[in-house]
Amino acid sequence: MRLHRAFPLVLLVAALLAPAPASANHFAVRVDGSFTDAAGEGTFEGTLSLSRFERHGDRLVVVGSLDGRLTDATGKQLGEVEDRGVTATVDLGSLAASCERTSLRVGLEDLDAAGVRAHLQPAEVEIAANAVPGGGLQAPLCALAEAVRPSADLGAVAQRLEAVLAALG
């Protein structure tokens, strides 16, 4: 008798304790890497999903997740990386923005997985205004272009990049 009364309460508590769903605002870019093991030179091929941008002191970072596959020189799959959390630094010298597009480079740390250490190449991010039909990216890209300058406030740049991600979502 008491169990059926407690069940709705258990469901409510479980719902309140469950993690919030991830933001739908993300953009994925290709990530490549390499490593050397007994079989020779292997590869990492994957994607970095950009979830948000943040200012960390004098750095601009992207927070996201990494997915991919490690394959040795013989073509044997060694393992997969799924939804690995990543915080990576944006190369400020690579950040360019206009009303038509923005581009930036994200430096990634080496990856330890499947018993190997893969060196990841920087991820190149390019977002064009026509990525969203109907011009939905034009205004956020123009606002970003206004914020990007040599003495830019990184907090403002992060907010404008967030608006671009939101427009993509």
Given the helix and strand composition, which structural class is it? alpha+beta
User: How would you state the average pLDDT, rounded?
Assistant: 87
Question: How many domains make up the 3D coordinates?
Answer: 1
Shape, principal axes of CA atoms? elongated
> What proportion strand?
over 45%
Low-pLDDT windows of residues:
1-24
Q: SSE order in H/E notation?
A: HEEEEEEEEHH
Fold topology:
Elements: H1 2-17, E1 27-37, E2 40-56, E3 59-71, E4 77-97, E5 101-107, E6 111-113, E7 116-120, E8 123-128, H2 138-147, H3 154-168
Antiparallel strand pairs: 1-2, 1-7, 2-3, 3-4, 4-5, 5-8, 6-7
Helix pairs in contact: 2-3
Question: How is this structure best described in words?
Answer:
With 169 residues, the chain is of the alpha+beta class. The chain has one domain. It is 24% helix and 49% strand. The chain has three helices and eight strands. The chain has an eight-stranded antiparallel β-sheet. A hairpin with a 2-residue loop joins β2 and β3. α2 packs antiparallel against α3. The termini are far apart. 24% of the residues are buried. The N terminus is likely disordered.
